[in-house]
Each structure stands twice: as C-alpha cells, then as structure tokens.
Request: fold
Amino acid sequence: MREFEVTVPAPEKWGEGLAWVDQGSDVRVDVRLESVHEGILVTADIAATYEGQCSRCLMDLTRPLEVEFQELFGYSGDEATDFQVQDDHVDLETGVRDAIVLSLPFQPVCQPDCPGLDPTTGEKLTEAPVPETQIDPRWTALAALSAPSTDHDDEAVRPAADDTEKS
Reply:
C-alpha cells in the first residue's frame, strides 16, 4: 500500500452549464493505492473549487467541492475492466474528472432559500421590496365578489335573537 497527496491544476474546464471547475484551478487528491489480486485498488479524496451561477438569481458562485473516489484498476488480462494498469502505472485523470463532473450541482443556488429574480423588473428579490401582485384587469369582476363583506350585511342574514326564542 502507498499513499500520496498531490495538488495538480485541472488540465481543462471540467463541467458545463451552471457549474464547472476552471482550467488551471487546483485539484487536491489524497490517494491510497493498494495491491490486490485483480489489480490496484485506488481510493481517493478529491478537493477542488467550482465556479458557476445561481440557478435562481444568476449571481456568480465559488464553492468548495469534495468527492470520494474508489476504483479497481485491473491488470491486463481476459476480463474487461473500465480502468487498467499500464506499465505498472495508473492514470487517475479520467476517474478524477468523472467523479468531479458527476458531483457538480445540476442547479446550484447561492443560498438554500434564494427567492430568485423579480419577473417584472429583473432585480434580485432579496434586494428589492416585494411589489404588490398586479391583478389582470379582466379579473376585476371576480375580485369584487371576493371582497370582504361589512358587518351590516351579516346582520341581515342572521335571524334576530328574539325570533328564535318565540319559535
């Protein structure tokens, strides 16, 4: 068994969409290599920083990312394996890249309760006052029906207390 800690720059941009690891940003890999009968078992803890945009308010983000990775690199032989030992070496780049890209958030947010953008003004809702909801003028007749009634109207509906006692 051997253990290594290496920090290498990302050789290219990993990830697309709203979250990615930029080319040249540091990727720290704490790796353990264990010799087993079938090949070399690689266990790694990967730490990097991803950049992106909040999917609700489009604010720029920079967040840490930690990923665990474990894979068996098989010796060349009859069995088909995804990763193989080549000349007594293992190439971790593909496995590390796949682990990082698969762990990037699909819809990153700047905070868990980010309300997003105002659909009318396009301003961030946390910074702008909450506007009154505008009612489509075609629905004003229905809004009049749902208006609260006055106390005077309620008395007309209720029978008088004296009437109920006489019955």
Q: What stands out?
A: The longest helix spans residues 93-103. The first strand starts at residue 2 and ends at 9. Residues 2-103 form one domain. The chain has a mean pLDDT of 81.
